[in-house]
């Protein structure tokens, strides 16, 4: 009889524990889905691509104002040593299209791209360069 009670008690404890794990897993899954949905909706509905693009341009103006526009005028060869390198890196552009768009924007604005730095451009011009490179780059597009 004692052995029978121990078996029933053990089985009950296993069932209770399994149920608690199952319920905990269910609630964690729901909480994770809620967080993912909240993140997705806040990023895709609240911010358009152009707003994100302009925000990036403003950040580049702030963080690298004295960097040259073209890599050939940079003293180093790092990802952020020039606007050209930075834009190509951001957009995963293996064809290095940033240079032609930088040259075009500078030509339209009457700026000498070989002497100019990032601070010589407006956020809108940088955003235009970035978006143009994005469109022709290998970067995945949603």
Give the overall average pLDDT. 79
Shape: rod-shaped
* N-to-C order of helices and strands: HHHHH
Q: Main β-sheet: number of strands, strand sense, barrel status?
A: none
Strand content: under 5%
Q: Structural class per helix/strand content?
A: mainly alpha
Helix content: 55-70%
Number of β-strand runs = 0
Descriptive overview:
This protein has helices at residues 2-46, 49-63, 83-90, 98-109, 123-136. The radius of gyration is 27 Å and the shape is rod-shaped. α2 (49-63) crosses α5 (123-136) and α4 (98-109) packs antiparallel against α5. By secondary structure, it is an all-alpha fold. Helix content is 66%, strand content 0%.
List the helices and strands and how they pair.
Blueprint: H1 2-46, H2 49-63, H3 83-90, H4 98-109, H5 123-136
Helix pairs in contact: 2-5, 4-5
Concise synopsis of the structure shown:
This protein is mainly alpha-helical.
What features would you highlight for this structure?
single chain, 142 residues, mainly alpha, 5 helices
């Amino acid at each position: 009889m004692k052995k029978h009670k121990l078996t029933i008690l053990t089985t009950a404890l296993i069932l209770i524990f399994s149920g608690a794990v199952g319920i905990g897993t269910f609630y964690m899954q729901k909480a994770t889905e809620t967080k993912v949905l909240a993140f997705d909706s806040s990023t895709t509905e609240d911010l358009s691509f152009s707003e994100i693009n302009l925000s990036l341009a403003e950040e580049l103006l702030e963080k690298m104002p004295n960097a040259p526009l073209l890599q050939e005028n940079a003293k180093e060869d790092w990802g952020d040593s020039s606007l050209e390198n930075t834009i190509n890196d951001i957009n995963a552009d293996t064809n290095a299209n940033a240079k032609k768009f930088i040259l075009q924007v500078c030509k339209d604005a009457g700026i000498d791209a070989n002497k100019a730095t990032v601070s010589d451009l407006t956020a809108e011009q940088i955003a235009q360069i970035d978006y143009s490179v994005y469109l022709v780059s290998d970067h995945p597009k949603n």
